[in-house]
Design goal:
Blueprint (H helix, E strand, L loop, with lengths): L4 H12 L1 E5 L10 E3 L5 E3 L2 E5 L2 E9 L3 E9 L3 E9 L5 E7 L12 E5 L2 E6 L10 E8 L2 E6 L2 E7 L10 E9 L5 E11 L4
Antiparallel strand pairs: 1-15, 2-5, 3-4, 4-15, 5-14, 6-11, 6-15, 7-8, 7-14, 8-9, 9-10, 11-12, 12-13
Length: 196
């Protein structure tokens, strides 16, 4: 049986697991990685920026994966992990680690969204300025999980998970209160497939 290149890549990933790590030790981001804010730059082994911005990875990211990264902010900031269909750019999921008040949720909470709608919300978990947090997002067999500093937050099992033909793109978004607020991201690691 002959597999298309992406299907072959997914089969290899599932068999052995793949890891992509980004530690910002170089001044230039590796191929496939980009930022949306010109003020976000690698500095002293971290991605440092001011104001809103996104770190993007073109992927492709398989359906089963674990993402971890460290994040810090000087002021109240939301960190969100967004997954998009690599072929159509349709927004599939958002993992929202909130540090700012959200009017719809009536507070500062963590949430998993499917498309534009809330799938799961946790009111006991939030982030605050001046402290580095370890963020983790997992997806395995249609179950999505969020962890903050190793503590399990919202969990959502999707009864109809999307199956993007060309995999997913990944975006890590920081939404600050002010345009001059400092943000730092470090130790981004994506593990796809069987290896954990």
């Amino acid at each position: 049986m002959k597999l298309a290149p992406y299907a072959l890549w997914l089969a290899l990933v599932a068999a052995r697991g793949d890891e992509v790590a980004l530690d910002f030790s170089k001044e230039k981001l590796p191929d496939g990685w980009s930022v949306t804010n010109k003020e976000w730059k690698p500095k002293e082994g971290q991605l440092v920026g001011h104001g809103d911005g996104m770190l993007e990875w073109a992927g492709p990211l398989a359906n089963d994966f674990t993402l971890t990264f460290k994040g810090w902010s000087a002021e109240k900031t939301n960190f969100e992990v967004k997954l998009y269909d690599a072929a159509t750019s349709e927004e599939l999921y958002t993992f929202a680690f909130l540090g700012r008040y959200h009017s719809v949720l009536d507070g500062v909470k963590c949430a998993i969204l499917k498309g534009p709608g809330f799938a799961k919300v946790d009111s006991k978990m939030w982030i605050y300025p001046g402290r580095q947090f370890t963020f983790e997002v997992r997806s395995a067999k249609a179950q999505l999980q969020m962890f903050l500093d190793g503590e399990l937050g919202p969990v959502f099992t999707d009864p109809a998970p999307p199956a993007p033909a060309k995999g997913m793109k990944l975006k890590i978004l920081a939404s600050t209160e002010g345009s001059k607020d400092e943000v730092k991201i470090d130790d981004v690691k994506v593990v796809s497939g069987a290896k954990k």
